[in-house]
Amino acid sequence: MKYTFNEVMHIVKNRWAWKAERFGKKLEELCRERGALKLGLPSREPSVALFLESLTKVVHSALQGADCSQCSREGSEADSVEQSDQLQRRDCLIQEKLQVEEEIEEMQMRLARLKDRSRCLEQLILQEEQRAEAEELEGSVLRSCTVTQLRDMSRTLQDLVMSENRMQIPIFPPPSILRLQEQEQALNLSIKEATAKVVLSQRLGSSLRRKVSETETQLLALHEAKLAAISGNDFGCAKELKAEMKAVYLERDRLEALAKRLHCLSLGSSQELARMKEQRQQLRQELEQREALH
């Protein structure tokens, strides 16, 4: 098959155009890849950086070992001298510690002797004080009593000490004091009961007054509703509201009467409570006087 010159030139042009188009696409892909790449040093890669860090540690450790071995060889003589000095200082400190322990033991023995001496002195001081008190008491008795009175007092004391009935000497309060104590206990109980009654009546009175206030509010609302029903010509509803208002008025009057009665009772209980407290105060004064005399 034979081609003409023009056909051959057309085929060659098409082939070069196809190659140029393919090369252009490849060039565009390479440009995009280059734009997506992030430039950086190889040492910044995680694996390479980890390897370099491990290698640095190994080299640093080897250098330290070499330096230490060289220093140990150079300072062996100095270390021996320093070691001997340390041993001498240690021996001096041990000697000083032993000396301090001996001093502490001596001080403890001295402290024990001083404590024994202090106890002996306390006993002597107590004996001297008792002797001084006895001498003072004897002097006051001799100054205030005659010889006859002293003899009577001696016989009385001897009879008191040697008496077979000395266990019958009354040491408990007399019956009069016991009666006063019982009266005080009964009065305290009555005061507690009266106080509870007063508190209860006050609470009830407060509750009744609150209910009366509620009925007043209810009456006002019913009155307004009745006026609204009358204005709306709803006379049936107005009549019902009027009957309800009448019942509420009766309830209000009943509550007010109860509140007044309760107020009177509370007032009387308060007066009775004040009277009992005053009576308890007088009873307590009398009891204290009799106990003092006893």
Low-pLDDT segments: none
The tally of strands reads: 0
Order of H and E elements: HHHHHH
Percent range of helical residues? over 70%
Rounded to an integer, what's the Rg over CA atoms? Answer: 60 Å
Percentage of residues in strands = under 5%
Structural class: mainly alpha
How far apart are the termini? Answer: 162 Å
Mean pLDDT score? 77
Query: How many H/I helical runs?
Result: 6
Tell me the overall shape.
flat
Sheet bearing the most strands, described? none
Report on this structure.
Helices cover 89% and strands 0% of the residues. It is built from 6 helices and no strands. The chain has helices at residues 5-36, 46-74, 76-144, 147-162, 175-231, 235-293. Helix 5 (175-231) runs antiparallel to helix 6. The chain is flat. The relative contact order is 0.04.
Which terms would index this structure?
single chain; 294 residues; mainly alpha; 6 helices
In short:
This protein is 89% helix and 0% strand.
What's the SSE blueprint?
Blueprint (H helix, E strand, L loop, with lengths): L4 H32 L9 H29 L1 H69 L2 H16 L12 H57 L3 H59 L1
